[in-house]
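Chain A, query sequence.
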Amino acid sequence: MPKALRPLGGIPMLVHAVRALAASRIVDIVVVAAPEDSAETVAAMLAEQSFQAEVVVVTGGDTRQDSVARALLTLPDDVDVVLVHDAARPLVPVEVVTAVAAAVRAGNDAVVPGLPVVDTIKRVDASSDVECTVDRAPLRAIQTPQGFRRQVLQHAHASADPGDGSATDDAGLVERLGIRVHVIPGHEEAFKVTRPFDVVMAEAVLARRRAAGAI
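Chain A, predicted structure.
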């Protein structure tokens, strides 16, 4: 099954992610870009849930970039701030969601949450020999949701080459336009679930939240 539909604590990751976004008082609508072969399944699944915001499902494209562009077309005309989130980060705290949107509202064209890099980073050559040790002090590991003024994000997608997949996030597309991207503090629980060990960590976070009565 698609990774976003795999369960965490008996609930699909996608549902966790949508709940996190919809729980923010600043979010009015959540648009889910689903793969074509599972869009109906995703729509039916989300329709069974109760969210604090309107939820719409659209058919995504072949790439992440194309999917975001399609989702943008679905937004009502009066939406002026857009958050782009990865369903693989299902446990992002609602405080991060609100902080990103608020930072855009405060005057930033683009905002991303990020954490300082704690590991030693080394650059290696084609033979896997170390070329140098990279100064990690100015480095940040970037998370989602990423926030943008709608016009800025639409312009970035309209200017992007559909065949160029070198930008791994929407902030990268905005950076290419020479627009400043502001970084705010991220959160350790907004990690990306990609490996089996990540699932173990996610289940542990959910168990802690349940014990604390947070969910």
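The longest strand covers residues 110-116. Residues 3-211 form a domain with the Spore Coat Polysaccharide Biosynthesis Protein SpsA; Chain A fold (CATH 3.90.550.10).
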